[in-house]
Amino acid sequence: MFGIFMESLVIFKLYTGLKFLVLLFAAAWAYLLLTEKDKNIRLMFVYAPVLILLLFLCPISRKGFVAIGLDGETYYRVLWTIPMGLVTVYGACRLFGRHKRIGLAVTAALIILCGDYVYDSPYISKAENLYHIPDEVITICDMIAPEKENSHVMVVVPEELVYFVRQYDANIKMPYGREMIASQWDYYNKVHYAMEETEVIIMEDLLEATREVYCQYLVFSPKRETDSDPADYGLELIGEAEGYRVYKDPVTAAVVEEWDQYYEED
């Protein structure tokens, strides 16, 4: 039990980073503990954070979290329910309520100086369009989008595009999603293995896998090589976008089209 407690404590330290923003939260919480009179606000901003933290650190809680079938690797998400930002801002507003101008300036300065400049993160880049997804994804999706209303197409794309395709067009399906990219899950998918896990894409293996799940389209990354030209296997190049080559598989497309006609007649 002690080992589970220490592991949860380490998770909490990593989650908070033990930086100044945590100290601001603690200071605001202490101030509200001493001064806040409203029972509803005390319940939400004073008692609830402590209760959630105690439950998070309790070994029995973590055992129960895993016992009901939840992933132990995502246990840290329990900490998301602690309203740290709300407590900090509300406590600061209450503290400087009598000196609004000075209080606003001091609070804003503390939050800014104690935080990090988010645009320095490698995971944030300038938006290329209104959808906030890469331009090449929009171009590719427009190429392969189903012509008929309420119909779908299946496409396999490189890992770096998986996150964006469904954001743009929900009528475009993929044989796998982010569950194949997150290493902690360690799932197996035949299409993903043929597309990403080999040093060079083996076209025969890839087509065998994609035709089993009826992928009408295949998109190849400029960063990946194939053992032979996809055109040698009958694939039709329908366009390119920023180096990404978009192919149509006429074999699968013919099968899917036949199905669509059958269901329309039925």
How does this structure look, described?
With 266 residues, this protein is α/β, with parallel strands linked by helices. The chain has eleven helices and five strands; from the N terminus they run αααααααβαβααβββα. It folds into two domains: 119 residues; 131 residues, no CATH class. Helix content is 53%, strand content 8%. A hairpin with a 2-residue loop joins strand 4 and strand 5. Helix 2 packs across helix 5. The radius of gyration is 26 Å and the shape is elongated.
In short:
With 266 residues, the chain is α/β, with parallel strands linked by helices.
Helical residue percent band:
40-55%
List the total number of helices. 11
Task: Report the β-strand fraction as a percent range.
Answer: 5-15%
Radius of gyration: 26 Å
The main β sheet shows up as: 5 strands, mixed
Q: For the terminal residues, how far apart are their CA atoms?
A: 61 Å
Mean pLDDT: 86
Order of helical and strand elements: HHHHHHHEHEHHEEEH
Poorly predicted tracts of residues:
none
Task: Quickly give the structural class.
Answer: alpha/beta
Shape: elongated
Strand order of the largest sheet: 2-1-3-5-4
**Total E-strand runs:** 5
Instruction: Count up the domains.
Output: 2
